[in-house]
């Protein structure tokens, strides 16, 4: 089993930045892909970003490309999401996920473990 705990969410003004962290425990996720998803009120959970086991080939949703950056530190069993130039439409609960496969994916169903989420609120 893998437990994922997100942190770093909060309230920020439009144009500001936040850095989310997701710490894994229970087993090493160094050989697993990691992803970030988000869910706004009344909407489905959507893909935000993902990264392969090695940290290569980061993938981003078009809505965040150029503003968000995903990275990982396998020694710390942690993945990060740096969010810059935040917009009110980025307001959502952000979830970290991992899949027991080395290469990333955009589909929620391909991820095996999920965190509880962290709230990000961007005010205009």
Give a concise summary:
The chain has 124 residues and is an all-beta fold.
Key structural traits:
7-stranded mixed sheet; mainly beta; 4-stranded antiparallel sheet; 124 residues
Can you offer a commentary on this structure?
A hairpin with a 7-residue loop joins strand 5 and strand 6. This protein is 0% helix and 48% strand. It contains no helices and 11 strands. By secondary structure, it is mainly beta. The mean pLDDT is 97. Strands 2, 4, 5, 6, 9, 10 and 11 form a 7-stranded mixed sheet that branches.
Which residues sit in consecutive blocks of at least 5 with pLDDT less than 50?
none
Terminal Cα separation, in Å?
40 Å
Q: Please, what is the oligomeric state?
A: single chain
Q: What share of the residues lie within helices?
A: under 10%
Overall outline: globular
- Give the biggest sheet: 7 strands, mixed
Number of β-strand runs: 11
Separate helix tally? 0
Tell me the β content.
Answer: over 45%
Radius of gyration: 13 Å
User: Would you list the SSEs in sequence order as H and E?
Assistant: EEEEEEEEEEE
Structural class: mainly beta
Task: Name the average pLDDT.
Answer: 97
List the helices and strands and how they pair.
Layout: E1 3-7, E2 10-13, E3 18-25, E4 33-39, E5 46-51, E6 59-60, E7 68-73, E8 78-83, E9 92-99, E10 113-114, E11 118-123
């Amino acid at each position: 089993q893998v437990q994922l705990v997100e942190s770093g969410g909060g309230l920020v003004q439009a144009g500001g930045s936040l850095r989310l962290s997701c710490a894994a425990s229970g087993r090493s996720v160094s050989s697993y892909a990691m992803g970030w998803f988000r869910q706004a009120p009344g909407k489905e959970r959507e893909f935000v970003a993902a990264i392969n086991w090695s940290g290569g080939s980061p993938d981003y949703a078009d809505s965040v490309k150029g503003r968000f950056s995903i990275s990982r530190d396998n020694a710390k069993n942690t993945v990060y999401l740096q969010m810059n130039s935040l917009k009110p439409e980025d307001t959502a609960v952000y979830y970290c996920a991992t899949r027991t496969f080395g290469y990333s994916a955009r589909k929620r169903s391909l991820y095996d473990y999920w965190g509880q989420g962290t709230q990000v609120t961007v005010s205009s």
